[in-house]
Design brief:
The protein is mostly helical. It has one domain. Helices cover 87% and strands 0% of the residues. Helix 1 packs antiparallel against helix 4.
């Protein structure tokens, strides 16, 4: 499989888009579950705090998914920004190596994979449009 597409393949295009959307959706679910776990870890049974902490990452993840659905390059940029923000958050908080490993596996990697897949789908779409014009 080529990283930079030179010929149009609609099957590959559909696969890239579907996989990217699944990874972005999975990220939304994971961020929400982690926000819920944070609220229970803080031991503050405040319903408003739970809603806010779950809504923020969920809305941002859904925004990345929605943008990637129609504007793949913009969605990819948002996902890469999310991965960078996660790394900055870890550096600021001074995470231990175990936390880094879990975060890299569960949060950072899916964001990067989805971003790359969105970029590849955008490139394939450009190739397909250019081939139809020729």
């Amino acid at each position: 499989m080529e990283i930079i597409a030179r010929t149009c393949n609609t099957g590959v295009l559909a696969g890239e888009r579907t996989a990217a959307r699944l990874f972005a959706g999975l990220g939304a679910v994971i961020w929400s579950l982690l926000a819920i776990a944070l609220v229970f870890n803080l031991q503050t049974p405040n319903a408003a705090m739970l809603v806010i902490l779950v809504a923020i990452p969920l809305v941002l993840s859904i925004a990345a998914l929605a943008l990637g659905w129609f504007y793949e390059n913009l969605g990819a940029a948002l996902l890469f920004a999310g991965a960078i923000a996660t790394v900055v958050w870890g550096l600021v908080e001074g995470w231990e190596p175990g936390v880094w490993g879990i975060t890299a596996l569960v949060l950072i990697t899916p964001e990067i994979i989805a971003g790359v897949l969105f970029m590849m789908a955008a490139r394939m779409q450009e190739v397909c449009l250019l081939e139809k014009k020729a």
